Amino acid sequence: MREERRLKVFENRVLRRTFGSKRDEVTGEWRKLHNEELNDMHCSSNIVWVIKSRIRWARHVVRMGEKRSVYSVLVGRPEGKKPLGRARRRWEDNIKLDVQNVGCKSMDWVDLAQNRDRWWAIVNGVMNLRRGVS
Questions:
Q1: How many domains does the chain have?
Q2: Co-location of 35 and 59 in the same domain
Q3: Pick from 20, 52, 96, 111: CA 20 to 30 A from residue 9's CA?
């Protein structure tokens, strides 16, 4: 996806600024770090993986119940005037898209979250989609 690629480019740019340049051992010239070198130096998950992992904790929030404020943030509608342009996606909208991408288009994600085994199968499917593994 375009957004995922742009996030990864941004992350690499920040990491290059953080780690700086590297002196080439053969020529002695300074050069930018390659993506593989950045990945080796930075031990954390990439930014796309972290953002897409929201589906892992969505089940916990759904099971908390409607009276909890965290639940209302997840499934609630923002108040106030809507800005011009396309409507923004909510967390719930993104989770619905993730569940649909795994092949559960006709099912409600809140109902799916109540079944632990089925939910973890969906989570694993979504996370594998994000890695490019099918």
A1: 2
A2: no
A3: 96
